[in-house]
C-alpha cells in the first residue's frame, strides 16, 4: 500500500508523514512533521532509523514495496529519541537483523528507554564498516539533539544521514526541499534550529568544523524530519545558516513579547517598540494573544534585543508570559540586550519577576518600565525612551 521512494541508486526513503503533529515536546509544529527512515539496498540490506511506534506498519509497508523486511541484514539507529526508535523493538522482532548499530551512548539510551535485552553494537566516532559492496562511516554528534546522536555517511553515494541536524518539522507530499515553497522551507529550518538546536550552538560550531575537517561533501543530506536536501546551493546555505545561528551574533532586530490584561501593558509595549524603531531597530512585536512560544523563539533566533512585559496578576507575572520565558530560558539564547516592563494595580511584582527571567538568560537588562494602572502620556514617553536606550546599547554592541 505505502511505497518507498528512490533517492539514489541504492537509497530509498521509507519514512512516515505525520500530518497531524502539532506539539513536539512543547514546540508547536504548525505543519506536522515526518519521521524519515531510509533503506540502503546493496549486497546487504540496511535500514537507517525507524519511526514512532504507532507508525510501524506504514514503515514496514514502504519497505515491503522494494524488499521483504525479513531481508534486512542490519539496522542503524542514528538517534534513540522515540520519534526514531519507537518502532525499533517491533521491527527488530520481525526482521531479526544480524546486527543493530548505534553510538556508544545510543547503546545505553536504547537499553534505558526500551528496557530491551537486544544486543546493540556500539560504533566508534569515525569508524567505518563494510557491508558487502557499501561502506558506512559513523560520526558522533553528541547533543545534536541527544547525547547518543550520530551521523551515518555513505561515501559511495555521498549521502549523509544526519538525523535531527539540518532537519525541519514539515509534513509535505514533496520529498526534496527544492520542490517545496522556499519561504516555507527556510522558515521551518530556522524554526527547527530555534526550538530544538539553539541550546547546543557551541557544539554545532564544533560539528561544522569537524565536517569541514573530514571533508564530507554530501550530494544528499537525508535528515530524519521534513524534506531532504539535494541541491548543492541549498546544502551550502543550510550549513552557512547553521554557522550564523550558532554564533548568535546580535543583529539590529528587537523582539518585544508581552501579554496584557486591560491594555496598559500593550500600550507600553507599543511605545517601547516605537522607541526601538526610532533607535534604528527592526522590531517584531509578539503579543502572546496571537503568538505562541515557538513563534517567539524563532523570532529571537536572529535578534539582538529581547524585551518582555507582563502586568501583575495575583502577585505574579501572567502565566502566558511565564510560559514563554521559561521556554526561552531553556533554549539559552545568547548575546541579547533587553528590558522588562509591565503595568500593575497595587502590588506590582511582575516587572521584577520578568527581569529575573531575563537576567537568568544572561540578557543585558538596560532598564525597566513600571506603570500603575493606565499609562499617562508621560509614562508612554518614558517607555519610548526606554526603547531608544535599548537600541543605543545594541548599536554600541553591534558597531552599527
Ligand atoms: Fe527527531 Fe531528537 O528526535
Keywords, please?
400 residues; alpha/beta; Metallo-beta-lactamase, Chain A; Rossmann fold; 2 domains; seven-stranded mixed beta sheet; five-stranded mixed beta sheet; 23 strands; 37% helix; 24% strand; elongated; binds MU-OXO-diiron
Strand arrangement within the widest β-sheet reads 1-2-7-8-9-10-11
Round the Cα radius of gyration to an integer and report it: 24 Å
- Number of distinct beta strands: 23
Overall 3D shape? elongated
Stated plainly, the CATH topology of the largest domain is called Metallo-beta-lactamase, Chain A
Determine the oligomeric state from the structure.
Answer: single chain
> How much beta, percentage-wise?
15-25%
CATH homology group of the largest domain: Ribonuclease Z/Hydroxyacylglutathione hydrolase-like
Structural class: alpha/beta
Number of helices: 12
Low-confidence segments, ≥5 residues, pLDDT <50? none
Hetero compounds: MU-OXO-diiron
Termini separation: 58 Å
Average pLDDT metric: 96
State the CATH class of the largest domain: Alpha Beta
How much helix, percentage-wise, in residues?
25-40%
Q: How many domains would you count in the coordinates?
A: 2
The biggest beta sheet reads:
7 strands, mixed
Under the CATH scheme, the architecture of the largest domain is: 4-Layer Sandwich
